[in-house]
Amino acid sequence: MSPSSLPQSLQLSTLLNARDLGGYPTADGGVTAYGRFIRADEPSSLSSEDLEALLSFPVTTVIDLRSHWEIGRRTTPFSEIPGIRYRNVSLFDSDPDDTDSPTVKVALSDSLGRLYIHVLTQAGEPVAEVFREILAAPPGGILFHCTHGKDRTGIIAALLLALAGVSREDIVRDYAITYDLIRPIVDPKIAAVPDDIGHIFRSDRQNMEELLDYLDRTYDGNPALYFSAIGLTPEEILLLREQILRQKVS
Fold first, then answer.
1. 59-64 and 85-88: which strand pairing?
2. Active-site residue, selected from the candidate residues 12, 51, 63, 146
3. Is residue 7 very low, low, confident or very high in pLDDT (cuts 50, 70, 90)?
4. d(Cα 212, Cα 159) in Å, to the nearest integer?
5. What is the DSSP string of 10-61?
6. Domain definitions of the chain by residue range
7. Angle at Cα 157 formed by Cα 152 and Cα 160, nearest 5°?
8. What is the pLDDT of residues 16-31, one digit of tens each?
9. Could you give the CA distance from residue 58 to residue 36 in angstroms, rounded to a whole number?
10. CATH code for residues 3-246
11. Does the annotation mark 61 as catalytic?
12. I need a surface site. Which of 68, 82, 164, 192 has the fewest CB within 10 A?
């Protein structure tokens, strides 16, 4: 499937990986809501036309998952726009460009899937904070992003979709298509590094399979148990699931 035929793609010229999480069927006959959650790559080079399109969507909340090091290098236009609720919740405790950091070493020496499990197990507090920011958001669309919209964004998107009851195959597919969308950005980086490092710029299916396998092993495949383990209350979990879903199909 080509990027242009993806039903969830927002088709913005300066955001390659901006996608609505709406339209996914769930196990109990529901469908994820359109217009509520947008996963994306960083908006540091956002054009005025694309910014207007997002504001008209309307996006009312932006959750930036990058570290302060990344934001210092490539800022965001959303932090100073009236009417936008901008929040920064970093899911990495170090600079992703620092190859000596423990977090980066997990990805380089093992796999991105192991990195995702590392975030779930070691960054439970900021992960919970992301979802509490979602619960506190006003009506309108919530855009969450990291740099390429692949790893940190992929973790949050997978947890949202899993909580809604979206199938494993659709969650993996939603993750895996990222590489097709961001190739103009990452292919030059892949070409410039040794072959055994290039995988960190892709979104190979097995990475998300590893994350979902971890949830299956540790939480019986029930993402609500993971949300509970990181401190969300039953009421918060229920409200979060309600935000992801729209009325069941009759």
1. parallel
2. 146
3. low
4. 9
5. ---SS-TT-EE-TT-BBTTS-EEPTTTEEEE---TT--HHHHHHHHHTTEEE
6. 3-246
7. 130
8. 999 999 999 999 999 9
9. 9
10. 3.90.190.10
11. no
12. 82
